[in-house]
Amino acid sequence: MSDDVRNLKTALSAISEHWQPHRLTSVNDYDVKVVKLQGEFVWHTHPDTDELFLVVQGELTIQLRDRDVVLGPNDVFVVPKGVEHCPKADQEVHAILFEPQGTVNTGDAGGDRTSELRELD
């Protein structure tokens, strides 16, 4: 990863597709990803890692099997490893994800929503 300064607003404005995370930068063995979310994703788990969500803009609901967690701007929530979850957003959400390099967006669910991590230009 480059040692250039990255601007969060510029990075998010470059993303046109929902549910397609882009690497903003890396810290040790972790990726800091930016993503736009809208609609409902897939139920999945990450068996070996926690997943951090930081909402920049909008309202994101993290559905868990026993409750819903609602995040607004500047809210942070960590989904513990192995916990099944399904993010959803009625309106477009801009978010930051922090997770180990190589973490797949659909976790153990796979399917057509699985995305290769994209690099920002």
Automatic annotation (TrEMBL):
InterPro entries per UniProt: Cupin_2 (IPR013096), PKS_Associated_Protein (IPR052044), RmlC-like_jellyroll (IPR014710), RmlC_Cupin_sf (IPR011051)
Coiled coil: none
Biased composition (Basic and acidic residues): 110-121
A Pfam match: Cupin_2
Domain Cupin type-2: 38-95
Highest taxon listed in the record's lineage: Bacteria
Disordered: region residues: 101-121
Residues annotated as signal peptide: none
Protein name as annotated: Cupin domain-containing protein
Organism from which the protein derives: Microbacterium algeriense
Taxonomic placement: Bacteria, Bacillati, Actinomycetota, Actinomycetes, Micrococcales
